[in-house]
Each structure stands twice: as C-alpha cells, then as structure tokens.
Amino acid sequence: AVPMGTVGGLFGALFGSGGFLYALYLSARLEAKEQVRATQSALISCSTVVRLSMFLIAGVYADSSLLLLAACLLPVMFVGLWVGRR
Predict the structure, then answer these.
(1) CA 19, CA 15: separation in Å to the nearest integer?
(2) How far is CA 9 from the centre of its chain?
(3) What is the pTM of this model?
(4) Tens digits of residue pLDDT in 39-48
C-alpha cells in the first residue's frame, strides 16, 4: 500500500491525477465494487481538501481574476455533470 500510495501521490502532485493508480490498486485489493467506489470517493475528497487548503495558504485565491474565471466556468461544469450522468 505504501509504494502505491507514494506513487499515486506523486502523480497527483505532478500531474493532478493520481486517482487512476488508486483505482487500479483498490480494484485488486477490494472485492466489492461499492467498497472501491466509496474508498475512491474518500481519497479524491481528501486530496481536494488538502489541495484547496494549500492553495488558500499560498494565496492563490487572492487573485480576483482567477476567481472570476472560476465563476465563469461554473455553468460549463454543471453542463458537463449533467451530460455525464445521462
């Protein structure tokens, strides 16, 4: 678990996506799909909270133009979520 977690964390930090490595590991270790999905969701949630906290501490969110861009992209995100569920 430690090597896979380390490599997944490195991929997440470098490329923003280590989740596929966690999914591979979890699907090999856990038998029930519900357990894999729940654990994957928890991992992504924890990663997001840590990343948001670090960006907040670093002052990235103090840039008003970045916040405006994020607000402009929210409708596109909701459309993507809606299309993805269909």
Answers:
(1) 11
(2) 11
(3) 0.62
(4) 888 888 888 8
